[in-house]
Amino acid sequence: MYKIRKAENLADKIFLMVVEAPRIAKHCEPGQFVIVKEDEVGERIPLTICDYDREEGTITIVFQIVGASSEKFSRLQAGDAFSDFVGPLGQPSEFIHEDLEKLKKEKILFVAGGVGTAPVYPQVKWLKEHGIDADVIVGAKTKSLLILEDEMRSVAGNLYITTDDGSYGAHGVVTKVIEDLVLNQGKKYDKCVAIGPMIMMKFACLTTQKLGIPTIISMNPIMVDGTGMCGACRLTVGDEIKFACVDGPEFDGHKINFDEAMKRQQMYKTEEGKAILRLHEGDTHHGGCGQCGGDK
Ligand code: NAD
Ligand code: FES
Fold first, then answer.
1. Which of 34, 120, 173 is the best mutation target for the ligand 1 pocket, counting ligand atoms within 8 Å of the beta carbon and taking the most?
2. Global pTM value
3. Residue 183 DSSP one-character state
4. Angle, vertex CA 173, rays to CA 171 and CA 179, nearest 5
5. N or C terminus: fewer CB in 10 A for the chain?
6. Is the pLDDT of residue 286 over 60?
């Protein structure tokens, strides 16, 4: 069992939990995720790691209530436990493997949308710990839905907050701030990392493509079982077929077919949709498990 050390309601329907998972805390890197199950019969939920403390042996997760399972999660308190907490899964963020001296010369812009602020935080923190100050834009619908502001301020070089309704920070969506920084304030960025709802990542990529800034995004939202078996997170990256949970979740955003990914995500929600996908794509999954024969 994986004991919950802290449970906090961050905003409407958004919760943070610090969970005792020493083995994962020892090995995880920014960009990776865990699969969480409340009990033996519970649904598997893939969640990107929001923070980790190797000494304390804890992992921080942030989740939004989107269905029955996440609502059940939200009722858990400090002292309760998850039956399963598996990870670290997926590939770490690309910059973890880059030459540090080269990385220190780069100017990186992070764009975090809503709950996507949680997976952005460990990346900016990692960079700060390695002597790199990154600029961060955080967008939320309204002030009360803004999360992790203090945490992000403590690790970001410059933090730009924007709300759709103008209740806090700048007024408008994140893409407006990207354009303002580059076109009006003369900022130059070598790379952008944009994480948030699919529609935000799509438009952030359209904006950075126009501005010539290579951009990484996270396809966590289309993951279901998180093990390469269900086929839900199949996506087209350039002319290659990839699986977000095994090959990602982070990819070159300028190569992603977002419209196809969003359409597939909707279809996967119904049995009829799943049947159509099977018909068109075959019984696709990542394969490689060596047991089910699906990779033959
Ligand atoms: P939201 O709808 O409140 O949007 C957050 C911000 O994204 C907005 O404030 C705005 O600045 C920007 N945005 C939204 N639509 C945009 C558009 N068309 N153009 C430009 N900018 C736009 O976000 P939320 O409700 O907190 O997000 C929930 C979603 O985030 C869920 O669908 C979840 O799957 C996803 N999510 C993604 C990741 C990931 O790894 N990519 C991680 C956690 C959550
Ligand atoms: Fe099921 Fe990736 S989430 S195959």
1. 173
2. 0.92
3. I
4. 95
5. C
6. no
